[in-house]
Design goal:
There is one protein chain. The protein is mostly beta strands and 184 residues long. 15% of the residues lie in helices and 38% in strands. The protein is built from 4 helices and 12 strands; from the N terminus they run αβββββαβαββββββα. The strands form 3 sheets. Strands 3-2-6-9-10-5-4 form a 7-stranded antiparallel sheet. It starts with 23 loop residues before the first helix and ends with a helix.
């Protein structure tokens, strides 16, 4: 009997080598070499109060259907609110919103106090002044290591030409096209 290999079925994984011991701080520094945009992901908690946190794990997944993802620590106090919410908003911060990023990354009693935002019908806040935002239905969740990966189906979005806030090597940065740097 002849067996033909099905290209859709991967070969079984080889035996795993012994895990390499990582220096956690050094590993984090290496990951920090990858520049990311800075976002604030928001939702509405069970008590009706807005919740939000600074996130740099945002990424596009698919254009058709329009899907995005982000991840949150299993130990975050706001995790239950995001797990229970029907919607979340990914607010992509503009370069002039560093203080807002720091506020939502820290421990504040009311992160939304004096933060201009609107609340669409789905309840997840859209922060004013951002470079872009993506209003998403909470489509699926996946558990990976010490994080939960949230997959969102984009229902509405908006964007501006504002420069985007970035983070790399432990520092905030403002992205500029290489042509602009060459012209200096």
């Amino acid at each position: 009997m002849s067996h033909s290999k099905d290209p859709a079925m991967p070969d079984p994984a080889p035996a795993e080598p012994a895990p390499m011991a990582f220096d956690v701080r050094d590993f984090r520094n290496a990951l920090g070499s990858f520049a990311t945009g800075v976002t604030i992901v928001t939702a509405r908690g069970r008590d009706g109060e807005p919740v939000g946190l600074t996130v740099n794990s945002f990424s596009s997944v698919s254009l058709d259907p329009p899907l995005v993802l982000w991840s949150q620590s299993l130990y975050a106090q706001s995790l239950p609110a995001f797990q229970e919410a029907t919607h979340f908003v990914v607010n992509v911060l503009a370069a002039d919103q560093v203080e807002l990023s720091k506020r939502f990354a820290g421990t504040h009693d009311n992160r939304f106090l004096n933060v201009e935002h609107i609340v669409p019908d789905h309840g997840a806040p859209v922060i004013a002044g951002c470079a872009a935002h993506f209003e998403c239905r909470n489509e699926a969740r996946y558990y990976g290591g010490d994080h939960v990966i949230f997959l969102g189906r984009v229902e509405r979005y908006a964007h501006t030409p504002k420069p985007t806030l970035m983070f790399c090597h432990g520092r905030y940065m403002r992205g500029r096209p290489l042509e602009a740097i060459a012209d200096e």
